[in-house]
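Kindly review both lines to help learners:
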Amino acid sequence: MVTINPYLNFPGNTEEAFNFYRSIFGGEFAGLTRFKDTQDGSKLNAKEKEMLMHISLPVGKGNTLMATDALESMGHKLNTGNNFSLSVETESKEEADKIFKGLSKGGKITMPQAETFWGSYFGMVNDKFGIQWMVGYTPKQS
């Protein structure tokens, strides 16, 4: 396993929050994708198109703080306790499958593992204790 990092969900103010975090921790954003840049972006209203589908900020040695705007129009409803996930980035697709299968026992798969438009093998699951996990493998670019 390579890393486990926090993934935060915000109700439309992710960009504001991450500019705040960057002012404290320093550094530059490692990734920033707006909903307008996704395959379903054209289906959203003008305000939602500008919201963040994904942002990441490296913090310290090997840690990354990541987040999204959780859009209610896409079926997301934030409550205390579901506003974060633990993101596991693995070293292989096989390791991702093993971890995902283990976390799924007695839990609920919310997004089956599959290849994604952003180039990762990725899935989401709530384990039997109610913890939200994101499990992914991203092949190294050569």
